[in-house]
Amino acid sequence: MSTNQCGNAQDAFYATGNIVPLPLIVRAEGIWMYDDVGRAYIDASSGPVVSNLGHGNARVIDAMATQARRLDFAYSRVSRHQSNIDLTHRISELAGPGYERVCLASGGSEAIEIAIKFLRQYVVAKHQLDKKRIITLSPSYHGGTIATLAITGDDTLDPFIDGFAMKSDRIPAPFQYRLPDGQTRQNYRLACAQALEDKILEIGAENILTFIVEPIGGLATGALVLSEDYVNRIRKICTQYGVYLIYDEVMCGTGRAGRFLASHAWPDARADVVVLAKGLGSGYTPLGAVMVPGTMADELAELTGFNFSHTYNANPISCATGIAVLEEYDRLNLIEAAAERGKSLKARLETLATKYPCMGDVRGAGLMMAVELVQNPDTKATFPASYPPTEHVRIFGLKHGLLLYSRRTAGGRYGDWFMVAPPLTITEDECDELVDRLDATLNDFSNAACTHLAEVIN
Ligand SMILES: Cc1ncc(COP(=O)(O)O)c(C=O)c1O
User: Fold this and answer.
1) Shared domain check, 354 and 315
2) Percent of the chain with pLDDT strictly greater than 70
3) Which terminus of the chain is more solvent-facing, meaning fewer CB atoms within 10 Å of its CB: N or C?
């Protein structure tokens, strides 16, 4: 790109040292994306785990067009509209008891901020002014705005955040692949849950607003699925100390994990607030949702009202899109499909892992999985800084027609992984095709990594 060329795509801002080429995508259909020279790619991670319905769904596109023709925009502070009423009703119905009120947003970060703002206004209205601190996991990801970056568990952000925004207090994520010496998986995850109580006692429960956690981690932990004993324990701790529990289901919610909410797997550990985004709009529109108990929302409405406003919250086209997306979930049985296909795809990835020792771990639930890459499966050693493995896998993926989502998070300190999270509409045959292409990708990667590591050692 010429430096004096105006505009250009978003990547004009990315580090010039990025080594993974970005194909120019011109159209997409189902799980397939096509570039400007006619090459086809499987959208193997649904972009950043967003395109749950796949691309080009005619019913959703028709619903968007119909809504746009009938009512393009109506501002929620001066009017009401039916698509808002219908979408929140359907989300609340699918989420179940405890989530009677749904506040809509234009994406995940905005929804996470709305969730925090709601809880903060609730405690302020009840004169609990000291309740300000937020606890999150390290590592974790909760968004790209300044406030949500500050609560994201990634200390490589410290130079940007320190003294600039209010950082969360952090406790360790209950990783299950690499364990501290002498710990079993169960001991370690329960120790991580205990770290929540220790942190609350250290800060003082009266100062803590909320603990925010992803039931299944996104890129920050590579599809780390929380365990039932861990969530039951953190739920108890939050209840005991009056700390509100938020589940960040921006990525893992809306059916991706084989349940409408990933946290539906744990009936005894329901959160106070749940946040959805990505799959809810499935890439057709920017959409997020914050689900809260009717009792809390109504109490706050009585006290002061929840004071928030974003111009595009609950905009008619996004609401109509969300309704159409959820109707397609029903029509195509996508939540069941995520559970079923997820199981068979995971089994196939595990088989592939017997062939490629670099596949240290395959984890996840439903169609939200990650493959952790290691130099050596016995020592679980990570790759050196000179060889960011996920970047190389992405490059070989492009060669074999696979678009994979990954980024070296927290400088690779916790490990390296890429997401395998195709659209929930993927068929069994398409899963075979995905695995064949991944096989070819990992074959190239393993050979290239061996050569590189041999050169480094010599
Ligand atoms: C767990 C989680 N929370 C929040 C966000 C932020 O969502 P958005 O990018 O839509 O603002 C993301 C995005 O990847 C996410 O994975």
Assistant:
1) no
2) 99
3) C
